[in-house]
Fold this sequence. Notes:
This protein is an alpha+beta fold.
Amino acid sequence: MAQFQVPQFIEIEDKIVGPLTLRQFLYLAAAGILSFLLFFVLQTWLWFIVAALFGSTAAVLAFAKYNGRPISTLVKSAFSYLWQPKFYLWQRTEAAPQRPLLEAQPIAKSPLQNLWLRLTTSTQALTKREKTFRPPERLEKKFELFRKLTGEREAARRIDYR
Length: 162
């Protein structure tokens, strides 16, 4: 029987340029190249502001994550949501008239099947469907009544380990 190696850590990107992934390197390199080119075009004080903005934006895109996903994915999703037309499947124009629902009564072959159909398909409570449990007086000492989170009452045996 041949054994196959299962790839692990498939969600982690490969480190290509030192400790950086290719995507991180490209973000930082693009910001560096743009700030280098703007150094020759802008005045020094304006260049510092623009370079700081480009550098911080590139650092956020390269390293920050929101809910475990890169910020670039979040920005891409936001732009696609804003740019693409919205598609609505259904919009109610006016209130539809309410018609009473007609319930088809299933035909059962035996009284037991009829009871089963009524239990599984009825929307109204059946009389005497569930009986409350009341332990006899002599069992009150060994059993204790308690209320579940759903509100039901139930009896359970009390065990003291003292």
